[in-house]
Amino acid sequence: ALAGIIPPSSVLAGLSDTTVTSVAFLFPMAKAIAATGWLEILVSIALGTPTPHFAGIVRLCLLVGPLSAIVNNTPVTAMMVPVLRGWCSRMGFDVAKFGIPL
After folding, report:
1. Which of 71, 70, 58 is nearest to 102 (CA)?
2. Using an 8 Å Cβ cutoff, are 91 and 49 in contact?
3. Contact of 50 with 75, CB cutoff 8 Å
4. CA gap 33, 2 in Å, rounded
5. Residue whose C-alpha is closest to residue 50's, from 86, 90, 4
6. Please, how many CA atoms are within 13 Å of residue 36, restricted to the half-sphere of its CB?
7. pLDDT per residue over 43-93, tens digit each?
8. Distance of alpha carbon 34 from alpha carbon 26, whole angstroms
9. Which residues face 2 on adjacent strands?
10. What is the pTM of this model?
11. Minimal CA–CA distance to 97: which of 46, 62, 58, 71?
12. How far is the C-alpha of 45 from the C-alpha of 59, rounded, in Å?
């Protein structure tokens, strides 16, 4: 038993589910995409330079919504958080206002 709490068969049982493994494999892909720098360029172009933060939130939803319909939300969020932080910093927006819409 792992630490006397969980038997080893239960620990590995979660890996037999294809959903768990597919989400796990999306994280390295998300990191690789973010590391290229192209994502930041594309997001900056797509979000533009809105004056009110509400316009930025709408643009973010229009950008991430269709992507979330195709790809699992967890890797999309992991990929977008650093990019969104940088964009908000450049625009002078509070990143906390964009967290929930993301």
Report:
1. 58
2. yes
3. no
4. 35
5. 90
6. 10
7. 888 888 988 989 999 999 998 889 888 887 888 888 888 888 889 998 999
8. 12
9. 6
10. 0.69
11. 58
12. 11
Q: What are phi and psi of 17, to 5 degrees?
A: -80, 125
3-state per-residue secondary structure call for the chain:
CECCCECHHHHHHHHHCHHHHHHHHHHHHHHHHHHHCHHHHHHHHHHCCCCCHHHHHHHHHHHHHHHHHHCCHHHHHHHHHHHHHHHHHHHCCCCHHHHCCC
| pLDDT of amino acid 2 | 54
Residue 57 backbone phi and psi in degrees, to 5: -65, -45
Token pair recorded at residue 69: 């319909």
- Indicate the burial class of 87 (C-beta count within 10 angstroms; 0-12, 13-18, 19 or more): buried
